[in-house]
Structures are given as structure tokens and as C-alpha cells.
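Tutorial sheet, problem 5. The two components below are modelled jointly, 571 residues in total.
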Amino acid sequence: MSKLNLALIIGLIAASCLSLLAGKIWISPFDIASNGEASIIYQLRLPRTALGIIVGAALGMAGAAMQGFLRNPLADPGLFGISSSAALGAILSLFLGLSGFWILPIFALLGAALGMGLLTLLAGRSGSLIIFTLAGLILSSLTGSLTALLISLAPNPFASSEIITWLMGAITDRSWSDVYFTAPLVAIGMLCLLLCAKMLDALTLGQDVALSMGVNMSLLQYLLILGIGFTVGASVAVTGIIGFVGLVVPHLMRPFTDERPSNLLIPSAIAGAILILLADSIIRIMPSVSELRLGIAMSLLGAPFFLGLLYHMRRKLA
Amino acid sequence: MSGAIKFTDLSVSIGGQKIIKSLSASIQAGSITAIIGPNGSGKTTLLSALVGLRTITGNVMLGDDDIYAMPSTIRAQKMGYLPQKNEVNWNISISNLVRLGAMPYNSKGKIANEAIKKAMDMTNVAHLAERKAMDLSGGELSRALFARVLAGDPEWIMLDEPMAHLDLAHQLDMVDLLKSIKDNGKSIVIIVHDLHQAAQLADNIIIMKDGLIDSEGPTSEVLNSAMLERVFGIKADITNDNGALSLHNIMRN
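Model answer (C-alpha cells):
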């Protein structure tokens, strides 16, 4: 294991401990055996922490794979339109007023699957990056406008408020069943993305060289659609849209690696998990009447991050 | 050795326009073949079609195997391709860049390490191993990218203007290197603009004009004043000093 991954795992353990202990009620590490505290940890904080790790890892790795595939450090998993397709599916279930065990996540997954199918159809078998990106943009603009349509047609103010709140993304009040639902799907997605690693490395030298080195571009494209579909689709299904993780985390990790896309996948997954856990712990202990949504917190963190990046780039260019 | 490259009725269209038109020829194994011609004559399209990168009509055979039907990894093991443009999208180290060349073999460990070290020594980039790709000059990066091709130890080495970014000394080194690679039994197909270099390097030449093959054959036969006037619109005297061709008094027509 590389030093970076080891350091990140230690960071992840620390962030997990913080996530288990922090909140409106702080739990002392010496009290975790007592009855009340044990149930808070087991029923509330442990599934929330587990979900934070799963979703953070999924989004972090998906972002790193996307940036490697598009060879662009500004690429984000949202660009493919998979997260907005999943969101559209979820919102449809809220719009229709359907409720029940796993109904919303299943609708979200169906949305993601439909998005993946459409993306495959639109992108065709060419394996061309430009067509693929444009297909993703078309898909995300279509699903975005349909989402807006559903909000505007919502049968009552409660439904539209519920939809908007859900869209903001959170891992509050999630249970073990959400963890069981997400974990296997994210694992499949991450496996698909890891299978892309070497092909993404070859793409570093451009599409023609990658082809000449034996990379099957259409296979790579299918694996990526599956990988992003499962990781991002399953994450959106249980948490709503949490932006910026997939964009920011690979950026943060890149200077610590050799910049090879294959070297960035695992560190981005671990760092994504740490980032979500830290952000979620911070919003839990913030003094406010109702909890800040994680999706909003991430966006609030993302903007200054990009300001810093812009400042750094301007100094470099000047 | 896998035999000659033979292409028949080879056409490539890009955006509805035929870039190369029903070309047929064969390229001998174990030799250096230069593709020359004016800008826009279809050299790069022909080379990339031979490597299996384009949508083609007609066929390209390598020995008895169809280039477009063989598994892409096998093709990648047989043919190394260096495009014209130096493209490196992430700031990876030169040793890792060259290592990518061993990818078609999926190999790790000692054998790959030796091939990589040898390739870096041959192209004189061993001292740059720990430097980052984007910190190098154009010429240094060209050599590193060529080392990447050599690291895969392909039988066929397909090069699109590899001298474009090199200084004069490294161009001369490259000419020597290519000759010694050929002497070690490899086959080289190379696009060159400098007709002097083509004359020094190539055993055979394919001359392209307007998407067609104007002429092809042994360098001493096809490289002549009439061809230069017809294809390039230039006048020049060609001297043959014991098989070493050189061009003098080059003028625009």
C-alpha cells in the first residue's frame, strides 16, 4: 500500500470516529457502552457514517474516473447526466406521492438506468470523447428541465417543498436499510471503474495513441457508463444530489500522486469519504435550528475552493 | 517476423470527403519506408489507417492477418505508433510515460523494466526519468514519447514526423537510431518532410499527392527531379554518391 493511501486510511478512521461522536449530543469515547449512547451510535450515527463513507467513496472515485476519461481536471460526474437522471426518477416518485419501502431509491435507480441507456444510445459505438460529452450534456439538460417541470406542476406546495428539500442532498436520518441498498451497487460501480484504470492511463497520451496501444474505446465507454451509473446512481438514490465531491477531491489528491489516472482512483475514493464525513460532522455541530443540508454545505465549500484555485492559476499565469 | 504490410483498395473518408483514395501497395518488412508528399496529401491518414485507427474501406493485411480483424492487443504488440502531435494530458513522470509502452503486454516486473530502461537509453532520455512530462522541452518530450513506442518492442514502428521537434544534433541521432533499429530486424514506416532525411534514411519511398500514391519503390528510383517537379513543384539537382542521395540547388518552380 502506498504511503498516501495509508495516510488517507488513518484520516478516514479519524473522520469516522468524529462522525460517530459528534452531533447535538456529543458522546464521550468512554461512554459508548452505556445504553442511550450505544443506541444513538448504532441506530443513527453508525448507518449515517457508513453511508457517508460509501457515498463519498463513490463520488470521489467517479470524479477521478471522469476526469481521467475526459482528460480534463474540471470534469464532474454530474456532467454525464446520470445524477440528474437518478434525481428525476426520485422526484417522480415524490411527485406521484408514492411512498413505501425503497420506492424512492428504486425510482432513482430506474432513472439512472434509463439515463445510462440513453447515454449509450446517444454516444453510439464511436467511443469519441466529444460525442460522449455532448450526449451527457444533452441528457443532463433534458433531465434538468423535466425536473423543473415536475416541480412547477407539483400537485401541492408540500410536494414541491419535499422535492426541493430532497434535491439538496443529505445523509440525515438514514437507516441501515439505506446502507444495505447502496453498498452492493456502489461496489459493482467501483469495480467497473477500477477495470478502466489502465485504459485511462493510456488515454493520457491521447485517443489515437490509446487505440494504437490496444485500448478498446467502446468497451471503456461501456465500463464507464456502468461504473458512473452504479456509483452515482446509487448515491443519488439514497442521498439526493451532493455536488462538488467528484470535482474537488481528485483535484486535492492529484498533487500527491504521479497524476496517472489509475493512481488517483483509490485515493480519491478514500478522500471523498473523508470529505463527506467531515462536512457532515461540521453541519451536525453547527448551532442552527434545523440542520444545514449536506448538498448545500458542499456547494458552500466548493465555491471558495474554486476561488482559491482561480487565484492560484492567475498567479501562475501572471 | 510477421511479413509485409499489404493494403488493397484502401480508402478513408473524413466528414464525407475522401482523404485517401483506393490506395494499393505493399511495404517490405525489415526495411525503412518513408511516406513523403506535400501538406494535405494524405500521409498521416494513410499511416493511421495502416495502424488500424481509421474507418476504412478496402483492407490492410499484416502478413496473413487482417489488421482490422485482429484483436487490438495483438495489433498493439506488433505495431507501435507515434503520432505527429506530442500529447500528454497529465503531468506524469517520464519513467511512467515510457512504462505505458509496455501496456499491450500487460507485463510487470523485470522484463518490462529492462525494455523500458533500454528504450530510454536508446533515445537518450534516461537522465530525464524523474522529470515531469510538462516540464520538458518539445524535443525532449518527443524523444520520451518515442521511447514509449520502443518500450513495447513492436515489430513495426510507425512514426509520424518524429523529427519535427528535434534540434539538428538530435535529428542526426534519430537517423542513426532508426538505422540501427532496422539493422536489429525491425520494420519502420516514417512520415518525413525533409527530403534530405528521406533520402538518407529510407530504403523505399511512398510518394503521396492529393490522396493518391504518385509513385513508390526503392529510394534511388523514385526520388528524382521529375517527381520533385511534378509532386512538390520544386526544382532540384539530385546526386548519388555511392548510394547516398542528396539534393542541391532547391528552388520553387
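Marking note: The radius of gyration of chain B is 18 Å. Full credit if you identified this.
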